[in-house]
Sequence to fold (1122 residues):
Amino acid sequence: MDTHTTLQLLLDAHRLKRTPRTGWVMRGVPDGESVADHSYGVAFIALLLAEMVTQAVDRAKLLTIALLHDLPESVVGDLPTPAMAHFPPGAKRSAEAAVLTELLDGLPNAKRWHAWWREFEEGTSVEGQLVRDADRLDMLIQAHVYEKTTGNRWLAEFWPPDGESPFSSSAAQALYEELQAIRQRLA
Amino acid sequence: MDTHTTLQLLLDAHRLKRTPRTGWVMRGVPDGESVADHSYGVAFIALLLAEMVTQAVDRAKLLTIALLHDLPESVVGDLPTPAMAHFPPGAKRSAEAAVLTELLDGLPNAKRWHAWWREFEEGTSVEGQLVRDADRLDMLIQAHVYEKTTGNRWLAEFWPPDGESPFSSSAAQALYEELQAIRQRLA
Amino acid sequence: MDTHTTLQLLLDAHRLKRTPRTGWVMRGVPDGESVADHSYGVAFIALLLAEMVTQAVDRAKLLTIALLHDLPESVVGDLPTPAMAHFPPGAKRSAEAAVLTELLDGLPNAKRWHAWWREFEEGTSVEGQLVRDADRLDMLIQAHVYEKTTGNRWLAEFWPPDGESPFSSSAAQALYEELQAIRQRLA
Amino acid sequence: MDTHTTLQLLLDAHRLKRTPRTGWVMRGVPDGESVADHSYGVAFIALLLAEMVTQAVDRAKLLTIALLHDLPESVVGDLPTPAMAHFPPGAKRSAEAAVLTELLDGLPNAKRWHAWWREFEEGTSVEGQLVRDADRLDMLIQAHVYEKTTGNRWLAEFWPPDGESPFSSSAAQALYEELQAIRQRLA
Amino acid sequence: MDTHTTLQLLLDAHRLKRTPRTGWVMRGVPDGESVADHSYGVAFIALLLAEMVTQAVDRAKLLTIALLHDLPESVVGDLPTPAMAHFPPGAKRSAEAAVLTELLDGLPNAKRWHAWWREFEEGTSVEGQLVRDADRLDMLIQAHVYEKTTGNRWLAEFWPPDGESPFSSSAAQALYEELQAIRQRLA
Amino acid sequence: MDTHTTLQLLLDAHRLKRTPRTGWVMRGVPDGESVADHSYGVAFIALLLAEMVTQAVDRAKLLTIALLHDLPESVVGDLPTPAMAHFPPGAKRSAEAAVLTELLDGLPNAKRWHAWWREFEEGTSVEGQLVRDADRLDMLIQAHVYEKTTGNRWLAEFWPPDGESPFSSSAAQALYEELQAIRQRLA
Fold:
């Protein structure tokens, strides 16, 4: 990838700083986080999950996945979840995969990174699974923060039903239970 | 449509007040307009265009189309233009049509309004064409306002190339030329 | 009205997109809606009310009134309600009427539209009354949304006292009662 | 004035922190200053002007006037200048005077402070004149800052025509000329 | 101080309008007040406290202190309270004193104003103590307003423990108790 | 580190999402980026720099440093550069080091991560140097974006003087030159 193309990729990725997370916007959260904010949160959580799990984790791969996992949103935006029911099955994943291919085109590791991104989408490696857990956990921490700081009453639907766990790792599950404890205490 | 369902429709449409127009967001405009802001602008411009054209215009139909034309975005959001190249052809229109069907379900005029919305999408009636013109003109007035008030240099691509007219009606074309004159004068 | 004057009117009306609704601002709602947001809501509600009532409604007139009803605020702003007690009786209405005359000056339908606006102000036609109902209902839906999304405790005064109805039409009254039911359920 | 009434006055004055200055809002300045921001600027400038002038200045009176000069806007808001042409002559001043009377009612110095406020409105004392100068100068400094930080092209009308001075004191005039020099240098 | 330097001081002080109060920002308050907003509140409260106390108060001195008390934050910003534990004891006060010296350098009253500012920091004069009381009271009024308007649950720590008074004057204490009464009533 | 402490660390780090970057705030950029936004940018740039350089780079270490490099700002905030001249030499670094020790306390890799953070602060490893380059480059890309999107004229001082390079790696230098080319073209 030549310098010109690399800088274009940086400018594209930079757009995540001004891409709002749609879920909060639609529920009336003022000044909500950006996709870059969220991606930072995911990467940081993944870094800590890797310290907590007993499996071997390739940290370079783990953090690369975390940084790439929402990169396609710099082009397609953060499509609202209710919209999905009205697009052909798989249309979002295909669009994001195509965007990722274009964005990474020319990078030495393009193929590898694209494969890693699919492992995240499909949860087919320990690193992909940990980033999925971090993705979910960052969303719930953010929901908690908005509940406490803005009094928003429309965020309950983000929380998993009692007794259900959306996490692969027991580390993420334990952090989630601790979060629920704090959340209830201040309810 | 019973009262409960009608109120749900109002609450859905209300979401347009907090749905940002993506084109401005991606180009770094702070505190950009909402889809409801834009829809008001479109309806108001359409009202004036109807005064300027020589054809017969059904104003009730015209304004209804203006109010409905972005209603599906209350569910699917304002999908960024660059995203479109990566979705199957027609996926956006199909999704919006399906959403509109769901939103209007049970209203006495649902079928008629849906047909009108298609006339807008396809430009197949004078009212549909005037709302298309108003849609384009409101976007350009907004681009002009952002250029003058925020100094944003990334909005040039919204403007049609010299000598090209994106408008059906000579009324909209005349207003556009006047806008260009003002825009140049203060450049 | 020549093209130049018409574009000036569009630019004036466009200012409603950046005119905040004062009632929310004074009560600490962050990033509150614009007058254009509100006007869109009023027009959309009026469109649905017309479907619900049994009287004959001139929809072109109805929607024109909805689009015009706050147009003078593009010049005088949204004067806070508590300010009114300190201005001479009728000063606000006179100022707004004078502004409207200036804004519409030269339009073929200026006189008719001005008369319609008075029907809204005075509630002297079915269309004027329905827009009044829509105006009130949009404000209450917005108050509800702010109560649920920002936790604001200072919006109670917007709600009519128990047993009082601020609406002319039973359609608006029914929607209001449904709104109250939702509001209480999540209280 | 009893404690309860005094606290109400503090809560009323506090509202100036969330009362936007309308002139900037109407010209598309995002996140513009509040009336409290402006009042702080005026008081601080007045404090320095008092150091620069040769006349005797009662600083307690000067700063009290600065803190009170926009207090009525906590109730009537910041009425846009173009609105004034459409209200009866003197209506704004009368409304603000009436509001001030109500706000200060019960304070030991109410009469004196009200008289001082009139000296500001009418420019009939050295302290009143210096606050007028500070009021104008703070507005121009703010216009300068918005021109440089937001690229807004619509603020030129705030600046006095070449060769005209809106200031009573030569101290304010000198600061203004210095400001113009900085403004031109970076144009 | 020559005109050029004085204008620089005004431009520096002007920065307080865009310096956010860190305590609110860290607790997720959207669009929180500026240091200039706060300084206006402090000056206004101090003005009223002077009316309520029985001691002799030099109002010119009192209001000057209020206007100067956070002026150094235009350079060093509003350092978060938790940061203080990690800086050498007195580092913040020394930095702010040095900044104040630089900012006021050349003003006829520089030394006197600096001495007054120390009286505020150390609470060693009646005027310094009243501004301290006003500083605290404005923060608590603001916390109350944010609790009521944003539903923020993280502001409890700003309130003094039951039975403890952070105020020097009984006037401020009485206003605080009245504020607590209002706060509880709407809890 | 037990689950409770780990969650506290996540909540602390989460605060970076609402910690504004002070340099932009002081220069009047509205809605500027957060420290988390910036940290995401730094990590992403570092990931690409590692692809461009010929040296061996430990990517897990590199990305961990990027995620940690501004973590102490979650407690001490983003201290403005002009403030530094007024604090004892080294006070900021000491405070941040102490905060980092507290934040990481109990983590298995605490010591290693702390050592890595020092390598960043002091530029004493290839990974530390690349994050320094990424830190600088992300700031300049952001300055470029704000110049183009807000018309801000006060950001010139962020750019290095002609002929001076603030970068260690030729990869970062090449990207910087490309950025300058784009910046000039649209000037």
Remarks:
- The mean pLDDT of chain F is 96.
